[in-house]
Every structure is written in structure tokens, then in C-alpha cells.
Specification:
alpha/beta; Endonuclease, Chain A; 6-stranded mixed β-sheet; elongated
Length: about 280
């Protein structure tokens, strides 16, 4: 009989990674050697990662995701590896936020969750706590993530706030997060956001189909000197781009998306229908 080492996922993010790897592997009914064959590593290497004797690498995480069918998902091991490597924030995001705090115009597109700048504290906390339960971050990192978001939001409350354009996929408002009370308060906050004179809120409905020009979350900034900055995230890292030749096509796609999305009035009406349970 194999004497399995007891794992403590609460010991560290790396320990949580190892414990989840063992759990997912066992759920597939695979021994360590069986997973090893699928990812191109030795059974001893799998054991070392699971027991926290060896840190996971990006290449290893990518191979595991491919074997387990988790590539490109929120549960991917590559994304968890990035969070271990960079703490609670993806690489490149802190630099982006520095620009965001000085921008005169901010354009955002999001899929699946309410954009961070529009999240209520309760909604943000539910997301952070969920990451803790998955072992992706520690409770301390969850607190850091929520506090960081609050600081981002506060930075926009200045004498001359930026114009904030937010276009979100319909999935953002239909995906329930945190139960009815949290979600209702979040939707009410969106309606209040749309009433501000320096904002524009639009929902890109499901039925625009292939006319949705962006398939990943995007952040676009215009600075006071009219220069443009783009920021986008993969599963494992963020990428900041200031090259006009690559940023302009993203801006064009954003404008095309706005043309296909619902007007602000129609977007607010959809949100209100959801709050009433009539949609």
C-alpha cells in the first residue's frame, strides 16, 4: 500500500496548487505515473509538485491544463501558477493601474463578471473569497485584492474625473454572484453608474452573435497628451501596450462593438428587468 503524504492546502499557495493537482488527478482516476505520461514529466516530478517539494513551472502548468482539459479556463493551473508567481495581481496590472489613475478617458470591455471599476465591495469580496476557497490565493491576498480595487475606484473620484465608457457582455449581468442580495445591489449600482454625467454604460447582448468584435476583456486608456494605452490579460499574465500601430486596431474594434451594443437606455432597461426577475 502506498503511504500518501498528507497535504495541507492552507499552508501556502504552492501547497494549495499541489493539493488541487492531486485532487483533480484522482478525480480522473489517474495514478501519478499515468498523469506523468500525459504531460511529459516523470511520476517523481508529479509527486514532488503535489507534496510541495518542487515548485510548479509555467510549462508544467500548461501541460497539466492540456491533459485535464482546463486550458483557457478560470480553473486553469497556468493561471494559478501566475497568481503564485505574482501574488494576487497579474504581472503588468500594477503598471496599468498607474496609467489608469491619470487617464482622461477609460474604455473597458468585460466578459463574465462585472468590470472591477464598477464592482460593489460585496461583489468583489465574493469573488476574492471564491479564489481563496479554490486555493488560488491566500486570505491575505484576497484582502489585498479587495483593498487594491477600492483604491482604484477611489482614484477616479477626483475634481476632473475621466470619462468612463464601459461595454459589458450580457453574461456579466446574467451570471449570479454571491446570491440575490449581492447581485441586486450590484445591478442597482450599475443603474446609478449610468446616471452619472461622465459615464456611458452599454450591454453587448447575446444576440449580436458574431458581430461582437472583441472576444477577450480589454482596457483602453487615453492620456492627457492624447496618447493611447491598451491592457489585456491572458490566463497567466497581463500585457500593457503603448504602440499606436497595435493599439489603434483595438480601439477601432471597441468602437465597432459600441455600435452593435444596446444603447445606454436599453442597457439600463435590461438591467432593471433582471432586478425585477422579468427577463
Amino acid at each position: 500500500m502506498v503511504n500518501l503524504k498528507q497535504l495541507n492546502p492552507d499552508a501556502s499557495p504552492q501547497a494549495a496548487y499541489g493539493a488541487r493537482l492531486r485532487s483533480v488527478r484522482e478525480a480522473h482516476g489517474w495514478r501519478q505515473d499515468e498523469l506523468a505520461k500525459r504531460v511529459g514529466y516523470s511520476g517523481r516530478h508529479i509527486s514532488a509538485v503535489e507534496t510541495c517539494c518542487k515548485p510548479p513551472s509555467r510549462r508544467f502548468s500548461h501541460a497539466v491544463d492540456a491533459a485535464l482539459g482546463l486550458a483557457g479556463t478560470a480553473e486553469s493551473f497556468e493561471r494559478e501558477w501566475a497568481q503564485i508567481k505574482n501574488g494576487s495581481l497579474l504581472e503588468g496590472f500594477s503598471e496599468y493601474v498607474g496609467y489608469e489613475g491619470r487617464a482622461v478617458e477609460i474604455r473597458q470591455f468585460e466578459i463574465g463578471i462585472i468590470p472591477g471599476l464598477l464592482q460593489t465591495p460585496e461583489y468583489a469580496r465574493v469573488l476574492a473569497n471564491s479564489a481563496v476557497r479554490r486555493g488560488a490565493i491566500t486570505p491575505e491576498q484576497a484582502d489585498e485584492r479587495v483593498a487594491f480595487l477600492a483604491a482604484r475606484q477611489a482614484a477616479l473620484e477626483r475634481p476632473q474625473p475621466p470619462m468612463l465608457f464601459v461595454t459589458m457582455d450580457e453574461s456579466c449581468i446574467r451570471r449570479p454572484v454571491g446570491g440575490w442580495s449581492v447581485m441586486d445591489a450590484q445591478l442597482r449600482h450599475l443603474v446609478e453608474f449610468a446616471e452619472r454625467p461622465d459615464t456611458l454604460l452599454q450591454v453587448a447582448p447575446f444576440d449580436i452573435g458574431e458581430r461582437r468584435t472583441l472576444n477577450y476583456p480589454v482596457n483602453l486608456l487615453m492620456m492627457a497628451d492624447r496618447t493611447l494605452v491598451a491592457y489585456a490579460e491572458s490566463q497567466s499574465q497581463g500585457h500593457l501596450d503603448r504602440e499606436i500601430s497595435s493599439v489603434m486596431p483595438i480601439l477601432k474594434a471597441y468602437h465597432q462593438l459600441q455600435a452593435e451594443a444596446l444603447s445606454q437606455a436599453a442597457s439600463v432597461a435590461m438591467i432593471e428587468q433582471l432586478r425585477k426577475g422579468t427577463s
